[in-house]
Amino acid sequence: MKVSTLRSYAKLIVKMGVNVQKGQDVVINASVNDAYFVKYVVEECYKAKARHVEVQWGFDAIEKLAYKHETIKTLSELPEWKLKKQEYRVETLPAQIHILSDDPDAMAGVDQEKINKVRSTIGPVMMKYREQMDNKFQWTIVGIPGEAWAKKIFPNETKRNAVNKLWDAILATTRVNGDPLLNWEEHNNTIKEKCAKLNALGIKTLYYKSANGTDFNVSLHRDSIFAGGSESTLGGVVYNPNMPTEECFTSPNRHTAEGVVMSSKPLSVMGKVVDSFGFRFHEGKVVEVIAKNAEHKAILEKLTSMDEGAGMLGEVALVPFDSPINQTGLLFYNTLYDENACCHLAIGRAFDECIRDFDKKSREELDAYDLNKSMIHVDFMIGTSDLAIEAELFDGRRVQIFKEGTWAI
What we know:
Blueprint: H1 3-18, E1 25-31, H2 35-47, E2 52-58, H3 60-69, H4 72-75, H5 80-92, E3 95-100, H6 112-133, E4 139-143, H7 147-153, H8 159-173, H9 180-201, E5 203-209, E6 215-219, E7 231-232, E8 238-239, E9 248-250, E10 258-262, E11 267-269, E12 272-274, E13 277-282, E14 285-291, H10 294-303, E15 313-318, H11 324-327, H12 335-338, E16 344-348, H13 363-367, E17 377-381, E18 388-393, E19 398-403, E20 406-407
Parallel strand pairs: 1-2, 1-3, 3-4
Antiparallel strand pairs: 5-6, 5-18, 6-10, 7-8, 9-15, 10-13, 11-12, 13-14, 15-16, 16-17, 18-19, 19-20
Helix pairs in contact: 1-2, 5-6, 7-8
């Protein structure tokens, strides 16, 4: 890959992704394998006048060894220095860049029960700090090719060719070709226009049906709004949390999900790829995990029981089946990309910003909406070429939102 292209992508991440402000700190999370690219991102951060850039390095193989050899107690420890570090970030609000290149099967062979117990212990503690930072700082999630990930997608290619092909796909779906900054300005405007149309309808309930067995409905709050593309911090800094992104999303009334919804793509969860699954909902909660594979069923049952909100919906997202990501014909085995290929739902944490004028409401007023709370937020894809979505509006009318997998409005 040309250095000029890598620099262009790095500039897009810093300028349009997190929109680093003069004097702001930046935290980058990345694999040690990504150092060649992280260097360009760090350079761009300093060009944007960042005060300090910290890189938190990770490595799948070392994390796997830790889970293999350490006890649950040791893995769950949060020493005082780690908590102080989080407190410092709450005070300083650094921009955060998450660079993904992970092997979708990185944690295969690791005791899933052990992973669940560790995350169930650490998750609620770390969530307290995240909640204090919500909507106050910029963050973005982006991808670059890892060898194992690339070979998962292109198994018949050499490692080098697989990585190059994945680079091509990432750069295309992230609109890096041409003028990346202009491309994203236009793309954000398109998504905002679609969200405005949805919000003008006044949607009360969404009804989903497809031939794969999905027959499902979920309701929204009267003050629910669809959002998508760029977001703004409470201080007015515009940023793009997901690159790529194609979705118009909102957070539903967590008590209303009813029926069966089937996945349309595999999902990488806790380092394991699960597929051919679905959920049966009643009164908002998952009451049955549907899966052909017993191991996959067990993983999803543990996932949806990690805390009280893990088996309830926190997000409803609309993405046309003919999205640019789906048009690549690739299954990315990575939620950042696959969730933007077609319609999806997410179990777990909901978003305050999906309530109209959330920034003008008190914490008590927002809590009154009873949005779903959880330490997890896991997207799973449900879009198909025949998916139909009908909306019942608060004024009593019925409107077709999706027909044959794509927009009907």
